[in-house]
Amino acid sequence: MPELRKDPVTGRWVIIATDRAKRPGEFIRHPVPPPSARVCPYDYGNEHKTPPEILAYRNNGGRDEPGWRVRVVPHKFPVLGIEGELSRQGEGMYDKMTGIGAHEVIIESPEHSATLADLPERQIEEVLWASKERINDLKRDVRFRYVILFKNYGEAAGASLEHGHSQLIALSVIPKRVKEEVDGAKLFYDMKERCIFCDILRQESATGARLVLETDRFVALEPYAPRFPFETWILPKRHESHYEDADAPTLQNLAWVLRSTLRKIDKTLERPAYNLMVHSAPLQEPDLPYYHWHLEIIPRLTKVAGFEWGTGFYINPTAPEESARFLREAGLG
Predict the structure, then answer these.
(1) Minimal CA–CA distance to 262: which of 217, 215, 298?
(2) Interatomic CA distance for residues 216 and 178, integer angstroms
(3) Closest C-alpha to 74, from 103, 99, 100, 49
């Protein structure tokens, strides 16, 4: 029989459609094909095809030259512009503001065909360090209220280039979905004087039913009320509200956990397209005792249609307990 489950943070309801239960092999697949040989602006030797780099970790060479391991450049077609004044205006009953922000690309490796799951742990760690550095730099600009760090892998997930890369966008407003999550966590804290994410970590570690893997610093799990099949969260055990405050041992362990989790997903679901997002507290907020940064990985296995758009409910044909079991059984790869 179908089951309604409520997300404890946001209050969002989902339908776990157990009568439509699907195993990994029963989803319509959109596996990401091997990269083509076409010319790519993110490849070695094509540094002149991107805007001038903002940050690079190098073995040798100068700015905008080969020799880099990880490289950060402005997006060639940014969704927001970094130049100009932040101006808020009214148009009758409507509000608008200038499109001020920043849009950057983190090129994860010089190798065109390497996926994030393929990279050595040290390389993933450097990608995490580069994103931390860039967020801390953008944080100094008081016009920016939030930075979203995300990765689209595969055409079905919105990726327009095959070469492995992540993106970050700095915004002058706090997105509605972020505010809902932060406000939900604060409401729980005001009632119980505990972080809801820390409670989730304790419960999931104790029961193990939705646990994917665990280290001394991180837990990867399938959330209790997932919107999508095989939706996976990675949470640090130590309470921190801002991703950009993570220390070196935390990023080192996160590199291993992220690599292992992505390899489990690749093995179980035959290398699916996915979206990866970092959820972090708003930039200009101090340390928050009620919010806990984390990663969310969403394999693209189902479609969002009229029911979801019209109600805000999501229909998930795979229970998270089943998803967790399949991922655990995939081994570490």
Answers:
(1) 298
(2) 28
(3) 103
Q: What does the pLDDT read at residue 26?
A: 63
β-pair partners for 246: none
Kindly give, in sequence order, each residue whose CB lies less than 8 Å from that of residue 160, ignoring residues fewer than 6 positions away.
none
Q: Flag whether 30 is in a domain.
A: no
Place of tokens 């983190």: 106
Two tokens, residue 5: 């489950």
CB 106 within 8 A of CB 166: yes
For the cut 70, the answer to whether the pLDDT of residue 247 exceeds it is yes
pTM score, two decimals?
Answer: 0.92
Has 165 been annotated as catalytic?
Answer: yes
The CATH number for 217's domain is: 3.30.428.10
Does 230 score more than 90 pLDDT? Answer: yes
- The 10s digit of each residue's pLDDT in 122-153 is 999 999 999 999 999 999 999 999 999 999 99
User: Residue holding tokens 């979203």?
Assistant: 148
Residue 8 sits in which domain range? 3-24+40-84+96-329
Residue 176 has φ and ψ, to the nearest 5°, of: -60, -45
Contact 73, 48 (CB under 8 A): no
* Active-site choice (112, 165, 279, 294): 165
